[in-house]
Design a protein that fits this description.
Elements (H helix, E strand, L loop, with lengths): L4 H8 L1 E2 L10 E7 L3 H4 L3 H11 L4 E7 L18 E5 L6 H9 L16 E5 L1 H5 L10 E3 L3 H15 L14 H9 L4 E2 L9 E2 L16 E2 L7 E5 L1 E2 L9 H5 L4 E2 L2 H11 L5 E5 L9 H10 L3 E4 L9 H9 L4 E7 L3 H6 L6 H13 L4 E8 L6 H21 L4 E8 L16 H15 L4 E5 L2 H11 L5 H7 L5 H10 L4 H5 L14 E2 L4 H12 L19
Parallel strand pairs: 2-3, 2-4, 4-5, 5-6, 8-19, 10-13, 13-14, 15-16, 16-17, 17-18
Antiparallel strand pairs: 1-9, 6-7, 11-12
Helix pairs in contact: 6-7, 9-10, 10-11, 13-14, 14-15, 17-18
């Protein structure tokens, strides 16, 4: 049973890979339904890999989409594992999920499996939001954070599966009992046994209790030059379009001592430390953290910086670390739209932040914007153009040759957010506005990068979809827009039904069987505040009881 050449090359460039003998252990395949290059930069995926392998009676090996779909560590096929555990971060990876399952001997539809087949489970941001388009394919879903759910799931596996031999496969005569045991656990959704009671999202109260850092280091990934550390989890700002701002509440941060201890370990392997989180800038001791890390000799990278507050100490630390590019996210070009989405950033804040970046001598600034936001008009696009050109001029005055890049993404309504009821802007309008931006900005020396409008529409359908979409996913022949559209037509499904209409707030949503902890009434009030152009203050760092999570 050998590895292929690609797997051997990957292993030869890894540090921290965990190898275990399979004898007497429950074998779990941890599957990332995208490439190795992308998956190995996903800190959540690495965290689950480390957590599962921390159990002596578990052997967890990684599998990625593409190639022969065998495990990296031992080259075993999926059919050798007792559990196939998918970590799903992006809706467009649903197509890869189906391809992975159909390439194995495990039936695609959960109802067709018997005791000889592995247990098929999934978790990740998409699953926490709305797993319904995938629900016919999975035995169960983990709704929430892995650290909070996995210990009880492992106990259930131990009780029903027990010790495994080298030649044994599947879950060995215990599928029904195991599914019943799993369905009784908090945060575990078993579609075939669901009784209609909402499944409550599980989350970790104190993230200091769990290390969330790089487990395996490799140069063969986007962030391969650094040791990754999670600094914060969730976000306190409540941008009304943002999944992370609502489905990972409350905002939590690691203690300074914990972060420094993790960095000390990481610096034994890498000189550069990557600080990750949806709201790194909001860590209350961020300036001191950066100062202490620099004194430890660490070079720094930061996943995201808010425009307000923008830390000068962090910018200085990035420059001293050799960073040449900083990314900021105004999200919308007009003051009106930023108030509607509750960004909490005024135009003066954007200008001051860009001046700070320019003053530090950074060579490139990336700005993230969305088009197709609720109530957006051509006037908002013109304001975006005016803002971008003005910022480019300010950067050039500060330092000639500084590059400005705009990354433009279509707005996609996400389950569990205040905008979950709102429609997407049509592909025709999105394409027109994107063309307007390119034609107006690129001649001014401003680079415009964008996602595919057509694939953003597909993402929107899957984001707000129901389990009928599983029929279309199962019919796909390759991952192409033509195949997707044909599959929808064959299933008598209309994409416009999912993303072209505003959903009445009293209509039962496909994901209503999940409870994120945020009161539906709070989301409705936030939607109404958006319509009125009213902003909501960020969550305090102590429990406030307004949204229902704390």
């Amino acid at each position: 049973m050998g590895w292929d050449k690609a797997a051997r090359r990957r292993l030869s460039k890894e540090q921290g890979t965990i190898f275990k003998d399979w004898g007497g252990r429950i074998p779990i395949a941890l599957i990332y339904p995208n490439t190795y290059y992308i998956g190995m930069s996903n800190l959540g995926f690495q965290t689950i890999y480390g957590l599962l392998n921390s159990y002596d009676d578990i052997v967890c090996e990684r599998v990625f989409w593409g190639g022969d779909k065998k495990s990296i560590e031992s080259g075993r096929p999926l059919d050798d594992f007792a559990v196939l555990a998918f970590s799903i971060s992006y809706e467009l990876d649903y197509f890869n999920v189906v391809e992975i399952l159909t390439s194995s001997a495990t039936p695609l539809v959960a109802a067709d499996r018997n005791d000889a087949h592995p247990l098929v489970i999934a978790g990740g941001p998409c699953i926490i939001a709305n797993p319904e388009p995938l629900s016919p394919f999975f035995d169960c879903f983990a709704i929430g954070e892995g650290e909070a759910i996995l210990p009880a799931m492992i106990e259930a596996l131990r009780g029903e599966v027990g010790e495994c031999g080298e030649s044994e496969k599947g879950i060995w005569g215990k599928r029904d009992e195991l599914l019943r045991a799993l369905s009784s656990l908090p945060g575990v959704y078993v579609p075939s046994l669901h009784d209609g009671k909402p499944i409550s999202r599980q989350w970790v109260r104190n993230i200091d209790d769990f290390a969330t850092t790089s487990v395996i280091l490799t140069s063969q990934t986007e962030l391969g030059d650094m040791y990754l550390i999670e600094v914060t989890r969730g976000c306190q700002w409540g941008c009304r379009f943002c999944l992370a701002g609502f489905l990972f509440r409350p905002f939590r941060f690691r203690s300074l001592s914990n972060l420094l201890s993790q960095a000390e370990r990481g610096l034994k392997y890498k000189k550069r430390v990557g600080l990750l989180g949806a709201a790194v800038s909001d860590h209350p001791e961020l300036d001191e953290l950066v100062d202490r890390l620099r004194h430890m000799g660490a070079e720094l990278s930061v996943s995201s910086l808010r425009i307000r507050p923008l830390s000068r100490a962090v910018l200085r630390g990035l420059v001293e670390s050799g960073t040449e590019t900083v990314s900021l996210a105004p999200e919308a070009g007009s003051e009106r739209l930023r108030q509607i989405i509750n960004k909490g950033v005024a135009e003066r804040d954007i200008i001051e932040a860009v001046d700070e970046v320019g003053g530090q001598g950074l060579r490139q600034l990336k700005l993230y914007f969305m088009i197709g936001l609720p109530t957006e008009t051509e006037d908002d696009i013109e304001e975006l153009i005016k803002l971008a050109i003005g910022l480019k001029e300010r950067l050039t005055r500060r330092r000639a040759g500084t590059h400005l890049t705009l990354t433009i993404e279509p707005f996609v309504p996400k389950a569990g957010t205040p905008f979950q009821w709102l429609p997407m802007t049509s592909a025709e309008i999105l394409s027109h506005r994107l063309a307007t931006l390119r034609n107006s900005l690129e001649p001014k020396g401003i680079a415009v990068r964008s996602e595919s409008v057509a694939w953003a529409i597909v993402q929107g359908v899957l984001s707000r979809g129901d389990r009928r979409l599983a029929q279309a996913l199962a019919r796909m022949e390759g991952k192409s827009l033509s195949s997707w559209r044909r599959a929808l037509e064959e299933c008598s499904l209309d994409a416009d039904f999912y993303i072209g209409r505003e959903i009445p707030v009293d209509e039962r949503l496909p994901w209503a069987n999940l409870d994120s902890g945020v009161d539906t009434g709070y989301l409705e009030r936030e939607l109404e505040r958006a319509r009125l152009g009213e902003e909501t203050p960020p969550c305090p760092l102590v429990e406030c009881h307004k949204c229902g999570v704390c």
